[in-house]
């Protein structure tokens, strides 16, 4: 919200019943000692390692369904000491008896790619154990304070059960020192004092570790504790318990014997022969740094501008025989710190390699060297001449030129995003260009939120290996079956929403706003009531202000009578002076704690008493669903294996039609936008949540950035219901709007967008999963703009309302198949390079509608469009474009580039309506495009009507008595209309 042709296809319509999925059979399991593999689909295999041979069969918070897959044919055999499992899409190899999964003992092959899905870093005595390499519980990696090693440090420990667990290996039995490198400055609680964490080995009772205050957050110190260890592997955990103060940053830890100094030698996993490995995962010493400020890298970052004295060591395993092999470096070579832009030299095992220039630091290229390697295990050492290498190194491929580059990505929100510095930085998810992914579910709690039991020193791994190649839809389908499909919202939620952060009253909505919608012919389905409706405190009060909403239930009843639904904005804390605080604290049994906001108390939703107190606070405020506007308050959840967002959103979905919230992380883990990832959230979140993407700025760049983001998040996480602030939230224009409001007793005007930006943003919003007008005290209603912009916005908001039957059908398909409503073209055209290069400028709405928004100023704008294979017809003008071509398409404010695929169909209402609820079954229009066969199945709350294109007549066999109209788009660019008028057989030829 804020900080504070003429041959026309045949159509046949008839009811469709889909078969239930088959149940997976027990024979889908292969056990090899302590390793178990479950073949769930041709493109999905569960890989589980249990040192105690106790395998897990219960559902987890991520993985709610392992039994919904059809039985998959596969073959398994043991060959040369390797267990080999083969399906029609992939081969998985595990070296029998080799222990937990890691790079050198588990291999995936799919669609020409060889990969090592599992990375396991074990820190031997005397090795540096980077905190970011180990299992983290509700902690983010940060890099905003200098002096750290590796990619950053683990930040915060601000909530109970925040922690890290490192796997260490004692090289001999006896007394050892666990040494931790940390910083302890002034915490978010305002205190600067000694802090504590719990130190535990192998799940034993923790001891308290005191971390004395440091000068500031840039001052790194060491603290240690002695432990007695047997030789072999152990688990060392640093956790904030209820009795600990936390609020520290941890950079690394190490296991040392007496007298050993703190090491610089970082523990790493191998890079397996035949795979491509991340440079940032190697052992880096010297002045080199790991960075992430340039887009386009693989993995989590890159090794930045190598200089003299830098050494990057990468262990290599599995070389089949001594010989000369290609080593592929992915790099960027821009203008170096020495001011030069020229070919550079990198040394690999002492052999000089010439690295050509790239256009800039955000342009990545590859170069190949031939290196001699011995059989078995060795290492690659990348070093620089004394003058430096001055290149950025992203990956090292050993006998493998294929890059593991992400497609799409997610983040908690786009808060503050302006678009002035490129596209938003995303966290990779499911989809990769080389067609594989590991969903590591090891840390996920059980499905009910109960943490999995501690296994002591025994290693345990639980992960799902996706090997889909270019079959991206198969990957999304596997994910939806495994973790649950994206939430299907009520049909009305796909209509038009109006929201604004401004003080409104029930009378405002009843007497001014809704009548204006009706007067100007603009539909409205959802009223969003922002935070100022609250009494006592407009931020975190828990009653509706009686002076603004004298009859809260009456207001909601009025909303329903008008065919709408509403939501109320919530912030998750409560003032100590709130009239409901005493009861909340009593219900919580006195456990509500002071938050960082002034005189506020916050909730730990993991505690049943505090959760009950929190839920009961909502009961005095009637609404259809809740908008949890995560911001600055500090409530959260101490549950292990469940992110706070995911947990509380699931509770909100029980209280209303769905959860409406930011997702995928937690503010307690860093920053207002919380852009970093937390485990489990991205996979469970979509089952309950409409993702509100936060407070962007009102700029052309921000609008353009959301084009690619919607489909990027969809393919990365399976989320389909994504809602942006249409028009942006934060004003950047200063243009006076049409309304006034009071701000600390002063009269101020609302702001507005330039007419062209407003019109274009509404056009884009009409084709997004959710169309929600929103602003921070800004004009977003069509009649608040000039004639051309008003006409355009009115036209496209009505079009959106007409498209609700189509979009609802796509949403129901997404719920079943995992394929999101808004999608990148490569889901439908995976073999076309242009489908990947155009993701930031165009998208598909379902398989049949191509949308290429105009994102430049002016009453007439243009955009360059790539048309996928087939034939495409302009929805507004009828112009026909051939597939596999490019065209520059221009449009005034009254239209935009939207195209229908030949053979595709779009179903929409035949008439404009005020809302969806009061118009559920009116006449429908089917847009039919000539030139190819096709079909579409309309979904209407349990009833399905299948539409099939085959010839030039239509057979109407539907249980619906409604009238059907067919708009027939011909290959010569003309069109005509045929009305069914209740007949069972309709000729679709042009009327004579």
From TrEMBL:
Keywords: Glycosidase, Hydrolase, Signal. One of its GO terms (molecular function) is carbohydrate binding. SUPFAM superfamilies: (Trans)glycosidases, Galactose-binding domain-like, Glycosyl hydrolase domain. Residues 127-256, 275-399 form the CBM6 domain. The keyword Hydrolase applies. One of its GO terms (biological process) is carbohydrate metabolic process. The keyword Hydrolase applies. Residues 1-24 form the signal peptide. PANTHER family: HYDROLASE, PUTATIVE (AFU_ORTHOLOGUE AFUA_1G03140)-RELATED (PTHR43863), MALTASE-GLUCOAMYLASE (PTHR43863:SF2). Belongs to the glycosyl hydrolase 31 family. This is Carbohydrate-binding protein. It comes from Lentzea alba.
């Amino acid at each position: 919200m804020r900080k504070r042709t003429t041959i026309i296809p045949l159509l046949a319509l008839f009811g469709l019943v889909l078969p239930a999925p088959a149940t997976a059979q027990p024979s889908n399991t292969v056990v090899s000692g302590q390793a178990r593999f479950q073949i769930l689909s041709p493109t999905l295999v569960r890989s589980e390692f249990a040192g105690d041979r106790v395998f897990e069969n219960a559902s987890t918070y991520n993985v709610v369904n392992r039994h919904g897959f059809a039985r998959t044919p596969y073959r398994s055999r043991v060959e040369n000491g390797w267990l080999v499992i083969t399906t029609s899409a992939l081969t998985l190899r595990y070296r029998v008896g080799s222990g937990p999964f890691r790079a050198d003992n588990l291999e995936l092959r799919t669609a020409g790619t060889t990969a090592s899905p599992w990375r396991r870093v074990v820190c031997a005595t005397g090795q540096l154990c980077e905190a970011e390499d180990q299992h983290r519980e509700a902690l983010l990696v940060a890099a905003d304070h200098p002096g750290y090693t590796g990619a950053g440090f683990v930040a915060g420990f601000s909530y109970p059960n925040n922690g890290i667990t490192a796997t260490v290996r004692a090289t001999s039995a006896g007394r050892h020192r666990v040494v931790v490198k940390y910083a302890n400055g002034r915490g978010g609680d305002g205190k600067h004092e000694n802090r504590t964490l719990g130190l535990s080995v192998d799940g034993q009772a923790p001891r308290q570790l005191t971390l004395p205050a440091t000068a500031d957050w840039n001052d790194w110190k060491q603290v240690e504790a002695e432990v007695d260890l047997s030789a072999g592997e152990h688990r060392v955990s640093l956790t904030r318990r209820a009795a600990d103060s936390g609020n520290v940053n941890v950079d690394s830890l190490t296991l040392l014997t007496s007298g050993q100094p703190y090491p610089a030698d970082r523990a790493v996993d191998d890079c397996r022969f035949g795979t491509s490995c991340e440079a940032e995962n190697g052992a880096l010493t010297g002045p080199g740094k790991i960075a992430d400020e340039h887009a386009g890298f693989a993995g989590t970052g890159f090794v930045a501008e190598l200089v003299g004295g830098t050494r990057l060591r990468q262990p290599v395993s599995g070389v089949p025989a001594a010989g000369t092999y290609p080593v592929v470096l992915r790099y960027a070579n821009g203008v170096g710190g020495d001011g030069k832009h020229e070919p550079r030299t990198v040394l690999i095992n002492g052999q000089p390699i010439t690295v050509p220039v790239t256009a800039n630091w955000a342009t990545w290229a590859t170069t190949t060297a031939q290196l001699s390697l011995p059989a078995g295990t060795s290492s690659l050492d990348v070093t620089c001449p004394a003058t430096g290498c001055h290149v950025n190194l992203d990956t090292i491929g050993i006998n493998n030129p294929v890059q593991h580059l992400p497609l799409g990505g997610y983040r908690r929100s786009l808060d503050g995003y302006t678009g002035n510095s490129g596209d938003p930085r995303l966290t990779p998810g499911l989809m990769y260009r080389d067609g594989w992914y590991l969903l590591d579910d090891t840390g996920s709690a059980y499905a009910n939120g109960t943490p999995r039991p501690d296994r002591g020193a025994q290693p345990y791994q639980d992960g799902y290996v996706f090997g889909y190649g270019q079959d991206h839809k198969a990957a999304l389908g596997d994910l939806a079956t495994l973790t649950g499909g994206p939430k299907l919202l009520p049909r009305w939620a796909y209509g038009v929403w109006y929201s604004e952060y401004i003080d409104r009253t029930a009378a405002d909505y009843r007497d001014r706003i809704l009548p204006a919608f009706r007067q100007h012919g603009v539909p409205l389905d959802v009223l969003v009531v922002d935070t100022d409706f609250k009494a006592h405190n407009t931020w975190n009060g828990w009653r509706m202000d009686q002076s603004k909403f004298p009859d809260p239930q009456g207001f909601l009843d009025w909303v329903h009578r008008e065919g709408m639904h509403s939501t109320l904005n919530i912030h998750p804390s409560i003032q100590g002076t709130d009239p409901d605080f005493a009861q909340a604290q009593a219900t919580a049994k006195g456990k509500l704690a002071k938050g960082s906001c002034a005189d506020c108390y916050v909730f730990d939703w993991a505690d049943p008493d505090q959760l009950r107190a929190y839920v009961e606070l909502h009961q005095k405020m009637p609404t259809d669903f809740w908008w949890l506007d995560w911001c600055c308050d500090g409530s959260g959840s101490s549950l292990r294996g469940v992110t706070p967002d995911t947990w509380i959103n699931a509770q909100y979905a029980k209280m209303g039609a769905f959860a409406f919230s930011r997702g995928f992380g937690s503010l307690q883990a860093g920053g207002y936008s919380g852009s970093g990832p937390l485990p489990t959230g991205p996979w469970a979140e979509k089952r309950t949540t409409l993702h509100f993407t936060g407070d962007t700025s009102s700029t052309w760049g921000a609008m353009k950035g959301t084009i690619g983001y919607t489909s990027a998040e969809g393919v990365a996480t399976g989320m389909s219901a994504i809602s942006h602030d249409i028009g942006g939230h934060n004003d950047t224009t200063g243009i006076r709007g049409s309304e006034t409001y009071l701000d600390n007793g002063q009269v101020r005007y609302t702001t507005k967008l330039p007419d062209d930006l407003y019109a274009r943003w509404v056009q884009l919003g009409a084709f997004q999963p959710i169309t929600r007008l929103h602003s921070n005290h800004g004009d977003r209603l069509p009649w608040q703009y000039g004639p051309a912009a008003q006409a355009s916005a009115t036209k496209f908001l009505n079009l959106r309302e007409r498209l609700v039957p189509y979009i609802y059908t796509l949403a129901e398909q997404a719920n079943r198949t995992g394929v999101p409503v808004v999608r990148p073209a490569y889901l439908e055209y995976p073999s076309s390079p242009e489908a990947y290069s155009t993701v930031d400028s165009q998208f598909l709405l379902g398989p049949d509608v191509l949308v290429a928004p105009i994102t430049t100023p002016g009453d007439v704008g243009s955009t360059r469009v790539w048309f996928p294979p087939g034939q495409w017809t302009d929805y507004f003008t009828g112009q026909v474009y051939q597939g596999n071509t490019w065209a520059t398409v221009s449009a005034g404010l009254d239209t935009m580039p939207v195209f229908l695929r030949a053979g595709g169909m779009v179903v929409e209402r035949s008439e404009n309506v005020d809302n969806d609820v009061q118009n559920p079954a009116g006449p429908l229009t089917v847009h039919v495009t000539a030139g190819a066969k096709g079909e579409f199945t309309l979904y209407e709350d349990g009833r399905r009507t299948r539409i099939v294109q085959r010839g030039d007549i239509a057979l109407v066999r539907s249980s619906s008595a409604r009238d059907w109209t067919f708009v027939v788009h011909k290959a010569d660019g003309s069109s005509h209309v045929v009305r069914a008028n209740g007949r069972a057989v309709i000729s679709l030829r042009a009327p004579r």
